[in-house]
Amino acid sequence: MKARLLALLRVPERPDPPPGAGETLETFRAAPGFFYYSVLTWIPKQVAAFAGLMFSLAFFGSFDNGGLDFVQAEGWDRWSERLGGVEFSLGSLEMGLGDIFIFFELLAIATWLGQLVFTGVSLKLSWEQRWYLVGERALRIRHGLWSVREQTMTIANIQNMIVRQGPVQRIFGISDLEIYTAGGGSGSQAGEDPTQQKDSFHVGRFRGVKNASTLRDTIRARLQEVKAEEAGGESARGGRSQSLSQDRPRTDAHAATAGARETDAETRQGRPNDLESAALALLGEARALRRSLART
Length: 296
What we know:
Layout: H1 2-9, E1 26-29, H2 32-61, H3 77-84, E2 87-90, E3 93-96, H4 97-128, E4 131-134, E5 138-143, E6 149-154, E7 158-164, H5 167-172, E8 175-181, E9 203-209, H6 212-295
Antiparallel strand pairs: 1-4, 2-3, 4-5, 5-6, 7-8, 8-9
């Protein structure tokens, strides 16, 4: 029955793991106490609907003495006598006003019973379809039966976490964990009911969990691990860039020194050639002077 209904609604029974879930992925539902807490908030609505139904039956049942005796109202005898003789005919079918009231009374009872069963089953399935996934680097929250809402949050973006527990929740041993990411603020305003707040992509709520404080500490530890890994990566990248910046001037200095040495070597190699040419020129001039003196 449950599998057929989920297939009809095209709702997968279990959500997919979030990106970066890792090997330590934790998948769990809301605590059973959350279901009982939901039933407790559902009962007053059904009692109010039943009270309205009983008042309607008592009011309209007084117009027909042959109606539902257990809901007969007092003080309406005169109106019942005047309206009880009113009859309607539709072809060969004749109905009195009391018969029409009885028809709508039975329809109202059937409608209330139908919604009682429908909302009760929906309440149980909604609790079973509330999933929480906590991975190494991401979280995922999925809830809803007719309108499914799935929210994925990155652990590195978490700014604040708040545990809330009302007096009724304390009786059932459950509490709520609210997670705020960057851009979502640090919490709700004072006096504001968190259950009535509008859903936000920056706020994730683990509603009806049994150990909200333990869950908060687990997420906080993983947040610290992620930040430590990011800080280590940035330090490594900074160290590599600093070493490169320090090696670059040394390389330039070595290149300049090597160039200077090559220039000095070329200069030293070029000096003997210049001296030899000068000596030969001087020798030529000395010989020419000697010849001219010998002739005189």
